[in-house]
């Protein structure tokens, strides 16, 4: 498959998922709406995070184009996985509210799958409970007709819309070097040393789960494409 990775900045890219896509025999293209033009055609889409927020249309004029494009992906049943900001934008494109959390969720936090999540083709790659890397100031509601797949005490953490579109609020794609940059640049209010210590303890296991989640999405995407053929 041709996999399109939509990114929103230099520090929130495909990261861990890139090698998984290549190992599956697929072709990956990274692209950004901020660069202008039309996105390349793709068989499946990954939409990643970034330092911006999902309601900053006035500051990022390209956002309305990305939202309209995501609406078309949903309508056309293109296999799509949104992560953090990507999940927020996907939910907004599906008609959900988005807004700031009362307190940012930054660091490692427990997430629990719902009953639907445990049965889901993609989220079932994860344990029923797991420690996830979180780094977000916004959250969103559950779009009409979507299934809640994962939650924690802070926010909805995962959903599926139809048979082809998924969103997760946590960061399964994050690598240790990438996270180190986030901590250095933006982690001071949340405790540099605590974040580094927790990351050293958890990142290996988290990367195992991230590879499994990405692999499950690619398999699910192949199934969606086969049914549509």
Describe the model.
The chain is α/β, with parallel strands linked by helices and 229 residues long. It has one domain: Class I glutamine amidotransferase (GATase) domain (Rossmann fold). It contains 6 helices and 9 strands. The protein has a 9-stranded mixed β-sheet with strand order 2-1-3-4-9-8-7-5-6, sandwiched between helices. Helix 1 links the parallel strand 1 and strand 2. Helix 2 packs across helix 3 and helix 5 crosses helix 6. The protein is globular and about 50 Å long. 42% of the residues are buried.
Helix and strand topology:
Layout: E1 2-6, H1 17-23, E2 27-31, E3 44-47, H2 63-76, E4 80-83, H3 85-93, E5 98-113, H4 115-119, E6 129-140, E7 147-151, E8 156-161, E9 165-168, H5 176-186, H6 192-228
Parallel strand pairs: 1-2, 1-3, 3-4, 4-9
Antiparallel strand pairs: 5-6, 5-7, 7-8, 8-9
Question: Which descriptors apply to this entry?
Answer:
9-stranded mixed beta sheet; globular; alpha/beta; 229 residues
Helical content band: 25-40%
What is the architecture at the second tier of CATH?
Answer: 3-Layer(aba) Sandwich
Chain-averaged pLDDT: 95
Taking the alpha carbons of the first and last residues, their distance comes to 13 Å
* Domain module count: 1
Low-confidence stretches: none
Rg result: 16 Å
Which strand-content bin applies to the residues?
Answer: 25-35%
What order do the SSEs take from the amino end to the carboxyl end, as H and E?
A: EHEEHEHEHEEEEHH
Summarize this entry quickly:
The protein has 229 residues and is an alpha/beta fold. The protein contains six helices and nine strands, in the order βαββαβαβαββββαα. The two termini are 13 Å apart.
């Amino acid at each position: 498959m041709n996999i399109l990775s939509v990114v929103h900045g230099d520090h929130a890219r495909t990261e861990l998922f890139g090698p998984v896509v290549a190992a599956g025999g697929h072709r990956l293209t990274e692209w950004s709406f901020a660069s202008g033009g039309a996105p390349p055609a793709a068989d499946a889409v990954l939409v990643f995070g970034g330092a911006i927020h999902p309601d900053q249309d006035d500051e990022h004029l390209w956002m309305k184009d990305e939202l309209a494009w995501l609406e078309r992906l949903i309508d056309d049943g293109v296999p799509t996985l949104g992560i953090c900001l990507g999940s927020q934008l996907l939910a907004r494109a599906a008609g959900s509210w988005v807004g700031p959390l009362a307190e940012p969720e930054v660091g490692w936090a427990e997430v629990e799958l719902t009953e639907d999540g445990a049965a889901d083709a993609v989220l079932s790659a994860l344990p029923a409970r797991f420690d996830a890397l979180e780094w977000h100031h916004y959250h969103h509601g559950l779009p009409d007709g979507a299934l809640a797949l994962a939650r924690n005490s802070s926010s909805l953490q995962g959903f599926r819309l139809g048979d082809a579109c998924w969103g997760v609020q946590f960061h399964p794609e994050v690598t240790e070097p990438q996270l180190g940059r986030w901590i250095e640049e933006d982690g001071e209010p949340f405790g540099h040393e605590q974040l580094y210590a927790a990351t050293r303890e958890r990142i290996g296991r988290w990367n195992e789960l991230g590879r499994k989640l990405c692999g499950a999405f690619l398999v699910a995407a192949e199934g969606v494409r086969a049914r549509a053929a």
